[in-house]
Amino acid sequence: MTTGDPEPISDEARQAIEQELDGLRTERGRVAESLAGVGGDTAGDHADRADELERAERLAHLDTRIRDLTVRLHQADLAGPARTDQVGVGSSVALRFADGSEQTLQVGEVAEALDPTLVTVDSPLGGALLGRRTGDSVHYDTPAGPTTAVIVSIGGRAKGS
């Protein structure tokens, strides 16, 4: 459901990405260091060469993930802050559910971690929220059946969140 244009991200998502990048860079340093010690000795056995290949593949995987996250942060910088006039990727949305409870959720592109306050744009609720404004009712499907919520605010916090 993303447009292909740079999308903003929430402060919480930015912090999570930056933490992940720090961990990946640390791990990359360890893996690269372990490979730097590998010489051109052809007397090594197959297990040594398999281990070297595995570490090289891990290094390539780490480089790809670091590049992807760095690009995502750059795109978020280009997009600027999340909108507060209508719901989009990166929005913080306070909702009132049919039972009267209120909760603040973050709208994200993908779930990077198990976060009960994150809804993705490809989920039923996330998709229903996109483009909506404060005061709008959204209708979406749940495993228990169709339900409705009202957008209390965009960019703020609901009571009890």
From TrEMBL:
Region Disordered, annotated ranges: 23-48
Highest taxon listed in the record's lineage: Bacteria
Ranges for domain Transcription elongation factor GreA/GreB N-terminal: 8-76
GO molecular function: translation elongation factor activity
Keyword Transcription on entry: yes
Stored Pfam families: GreA_GreB, GreA_GreB_N
Domain Transcription elongation factor GreA/GreB C-terminal: 84-154
Keywords, in A-Z order: Elongation factor, Protein biosynthesis, Transcription, Transcription regulation
PANTHER family, per database record: TRANSCRIPTION ELONGATION FACTOR GREA
Protein name stated in the entry: GreA/GreB family elongation factor
